Amino acid sequence: MSATEHDGDPVTGGISKKGLSVGTVGLIGAIVIGISCIAPAYTLTAALGPTVSEVGVQVPAIIIVGFIPMLLVAFGYRELNNRMPDSGTSFTWATRAFGPWIGWMAGWGLVAATILVLSNLAGIAVDFLFLLISQLAGVDSIADLSTNPFINVGVCLAFMAAATFVSYRDMQTTQKLQYVLVGFQAVVLVLFAVTAIVEAVSGNGFDSTAFDWSWFNPFAVSSFSAFAAGLSLSIFIFWGWDVTLTMNEETKDPDRTPGRAATGTVLIIVSLYLLLSVALIMFAGVGDGEYGLGNPDIQSNVFFSLSGQILGPLAALVSLAVLTSSASSLQSTFVSPARTLLAMGHYGALPPTFAAVHPRFFTPGYATLVSSVVASIFYAVMRFVSENVLWDTITALGMMICFYYGLTAFACVWYFRKQWFDSVRNVFFTFLFPLVGGAVLAVLFVTTLVDSMNPDYGSGSSVFGLGLVFVLGVGVILIGVVVMIWQAVRRPDFFRGKTLSMDAPPSARRRAAMAQD
Question: I need a surface site. Which of 38, 97, 290, 509 has the fewest CB within 10 A?
Answer without folding.
Answer: 509
